[in-house]
Amino acid sequence: MASKTDIFDKEFLSNLQRLSIAAKKPFRGALKGEKRSPKRGSSIEFADYREYVPGDDFRYIDWVLYGRLDRLYLKLFEEEEDLFTYVLLDESLSMAFGDPTKFETGQRLAAALAYIALSSLNRVQVSTFSHRLTHRFGPKRGKSSIYPLFDFLAAREPVGPSNVGRSLREFNATTSRRGVVVVLSDFLFQEGYKEALAPIVGRGFDVGCIQIMDNAEIDPGMEGDLLLLDSETGEEREVTMSPAAVKRYRDQVSAYNAELREWCFSHRANYTLVTTDMDFRDVVMRYLRLQGFLT
Question: What angle do CA 232, 235, 241 make, to 5 degrees?
Fold first, then answer.
């Protein structure tokens, strides 16, 4: 990952603090934060009325409404609590492709998303996965965790084959509090992604998938006799790429990505595709806002 002093300079960090992680639904938190909770509390945002019952706090009686209706009603307010934000970063060997690599792009995105969440007083957990959940940071809360988080991400590197099913089952089994889950990956899993993501969506997590690819994977632009190497299994295969074969490849990649996008949308999960050549600051400050990941 790029050092804290170039991509994450003071100006960029200041801009990140103006953003928030987007949540489609309220979640119960643990401490006061900046996201709405389904509980009724005593913050400044009005929510609803209910009839007064003996023992209620007189301070919340709406006396104007009493004067109109001659009945006692209590004003209810939204209680703001911290949002649990989970970032899952794919560190399997397929993420080592590209310049910058897909993994480096994922590291930067994970760092930016976590910084935004920590700046909003949310609980943040960042985990990496390949054949299983490999490393975990948090849950942490508060800006004091930001630079330890950067150091945690900087120490990671792609390793091993991927098993997204096992990884997300471990996440689901070891995570008690629901919240926003953002998965950063190329989503090039031999075993597929649907059965892995479905239980998390089904439990009520607010899921977002950021697919990271290199342009050479989308359109290789190469023809002739090639030797292909599977970065995770080490398998080699000789292929002849004619113009027709290159077109079929492009069409299949496009269809695969479109299927992932449609699956996400049909399950009320966010989706976007980020390529490694995109300007990182623009991706965070503009693109992810347009795609509904940030507000």
Answer: 110
> Token match 């089904």: residue?
202
Helix (H) or strand (E) run with residue 254 in it: helix 243-266
Tell whether 212 is covered by a domain.
yes
What's the domain range around 130? Answer: 10-26+83-290
**Any residues with CB less than 8 A from the CB of 248 and at least 6 apart, and which?**
none
Distances (CA, A) of 115 to 18, 22, 134, 173, 245: 11, 14, 21, 26, 43
Over the stretch 203-245, which tens digit does the pLDDT of each residue have?
Answer: 999 999 999 999 999 988 776 666 666 666 667 777 777 888 8
Is the preceding peptide bond at 54 cis, omega within 30 degrees of 0?
no
Host H or E run for residue 264: helix 243-266
CATH number for the domain harbouring residue 284 = 3.40.50.410
Decide if 61 contacts 129 (C-beta within 8 A). Answer: no
DSSP 98: B
The total of other beta-carbon atoms located within 10 Å of residue 206's CB is 25
113-156 pLDDT tens trace: 999 999 888 999 999 999 999 999 999 988 889 999 999 999 99
Say if residues 264 and 293 touch (Cβ distance below 8 Å).
no
Are residues 117 and 83 in contact, defined by beta-carbon separation less than 8 angstroms?
A: yes
Helix, strand, coil content of the chain in percent (nearest 5):
35, 30, 35
- Of 202, 204, 206, 160, nearest to 183 by C-alpha is 206
| Domain shared by 182 and 262, yes or no | yes
